[in-house]
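Reviewers of the previous submission asked for a worked example of the structure-prediction workflow described in the proposal, so we include one complete record here. The input consisted solely of the amino acid sequence. No template or homolog information was supplied to the procedure at any stage.
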Amino acid sequence: MTRVISGAVLAVAAIGAIVFLPTLALRVLACVVAALAAHEYFEMTGTNIRAIVLVVALCWVISGSSWPASYVLLSMALLWVAANVLISDHAIQDASAGLFAAVYIGMPLGMLTAVHARLGWRATLLLVGTVVISDSAQYYSGRLLGRTPLAPSISPKKTVEGAVGGLIFGAAFMTIVGAKVLPFTAFGPLLGLGVFVVAVGICGDLFESRLKRTAGIKDSSSLIPGHGGVLDRIDALLFAAAPFYLFVRNIT
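From that input alone, the workflow returned the following structure tokens.
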């Protein structure tokens, strides 16, 4: 019951934020989520937690779609490495871990907010809905038909049949609903986008499972009752945001 209630509250809060918050407030919220997820990541990996600043900064820069992001990102990366390796005398591996966290967490959350700024809440919910539908279809397809392990050394409960179910239902949702939300896009590209977004989302889920298995923990944190941590809730979305964002930028 706790899982159901907290899940319902989380879903309503997320949808409400996406639909009703102005872009500036949504950018701030994305940075808060990025900071929480980054904290969990650094706790799991045992790396430099101060890099949360870089994660949040990257999220903020990317979410401002009118900024010359490529130049800002390059400058931020160089300054971060310089500050950690040359000034603070940290190993380059620690600096690299901070950069990876920024790309893994800060960039996709910033991209998700940039989609909202570019096309509005419907396009944002299209991506989130695709990931949620895919996750649900993977779970129920796996329970009903699952026989073949997908990645037993990483996530023993995931099956090939579940992944196929997620691909079918997630891609179908992207294609059908996407035709309404992105009416200037043909069915073929939407179907291809749906398949790719779901596939990389599954990879994102497995990636976070590998992080947890390496750290010897079940959940990234206990922040969300019955659901674990922030990373546990957005692991697939983090991988799925980039291809969707790039697709949207190329067609609009």
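The chain has nine helices and two strands. We consider this example representative of the routine output the project will generate in years two and three.
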